[in-house]
Amino acid sequence: MTNVLIVGSGPTGLTLAIELARRGVDLRLVERSPEPPTGVRGKGLQPRTLEVFDDLGVIDEILATGATYPGLRSYAGDKVVWEGRMDELREPSASVPYPNLIMQPQWRTERILRDRLASLGHHVEYGTEVTGVEQDQDGVTATLATGERVRSSYLVGADGGRSTVRKAAGIGFAGETFDSERMLLADVRTGDLDRDHWHAWGSLDKQTVHFTLCPLPGTGVFQLVAPHPGHDDLVALVAEHAPHVRIEEIVWRSEYRVNIRLAARFRAGRVFLAGDAAHVHSPAGGQGLNTGVQDAYNLGWKLAIGSESLLETYEDERKAVAEHVLGLSTRLHREGDHRRGDDTNQLGLAYLGSALSAGERGGERLGAYFAEQRGTGFLLLADPAPGLPPQLTVLPPLDGQRGVMLVRPDGYIGYHGDVSGLSAYLSGFGIAAPAFSAAR
Fold first, then answer.
1. Which positions ≥6 away from 406 have C-beta within 8 Å?
2. What is the pTM of this model?
3. Which CATH number applies to 177-258?
4. CATH 3.40.190.10 at 2-66+99-174+259-335, yes or no
5. Which tens digit of pLDDT belongs to each residue from 152-203?
6. Do 171 and 263 meet the contact criterion of CB atoms below 8 Å apart?
């Protein structure tokens, strides 16, 4: 029996598969589409996601093939009327090694993650559609379109906003679809614009945007985004507002309607939801892809350990984050706010109210020891002392730290307190000594 069946091979499903594979968990990753996507869709990787990709072993290629966002250049016809940035470029620091938003076409992010997964001995099963899900107290049975029935201990739906898994599990998806708020996306070619700026046409006075053309790093194309087009002819739209720009080719295009929805639950028994299957956002603020990656990063190590008390914390932690991020992205969308920074980089997200967070700093992201955090085990920040579990990687405490800090595999402080309470904390969540001995 497969331990975990993952449905959906976008960034969320791939991140979860890598997390499980590097822990030696038996898994299958299935995808209904016959082949990988080609369009850009999401393109912004937030600083916290870059920290996750560092841990997963893909950060070098992500940075080498991506780029920081270019400055904005706004036009009236062919005249530049404003230049600026939507974010402030920052220098790396000990606590924030990846401070800047990185532009990376989603298809390439997925390809890099697929290659990493392949290095761990697993591959996406394309053209494999799940048509039904049933579960009992011992496991989950998924029915495939081929008639095959797959038995697994757990099933994770990372299959998007129209999730088959969510519907089969009977989980509600409250929210709204705004049919009147359309957005057209396209990958286009033009030789009439420089590739050093994100070009925009609209009205500064009315704070409206007709369309933007953003150069995508490592490609020969621009992503065209038209938030509220009056017609579907993109070539005519560009000609109307920027007659000096000729669209030579439309490589790919898609239409998007603004959806703002949140699943009633992120778990039903042995079935879990992650990414767009659990929450869909306005594209404002670049939160959707990144929140899905964080879902997977939170869930992976918990599934690998598998204790019920630990798995119960997934919905508690991630649903609260999703509610916060939905509120943020909705506000940015409604206000037309294109700024980026501390509100959107996801570095400040924490699990302060979680049952898994104990003590004064329990639930905070650890902004230190990034090299030591790589890997699948726990860290303990403490002065050497008798009575510590011998399998733990023990590091010096932070300046001014009182007591000990146990750092979870996802980089958040789980326990902060007296060493005498550590064993009870661990046993309460079914975390046994072998969890500490994974190679870092």
1. 378, 379, 380, 413, 414, 415, 416, 422, 425, 426
2. 0.93
3. 3.30.9.10
4. no
5. 999 999 999 999 999 999 999 988 776 566 788 899 999 999 999 999 999 7
6. yes
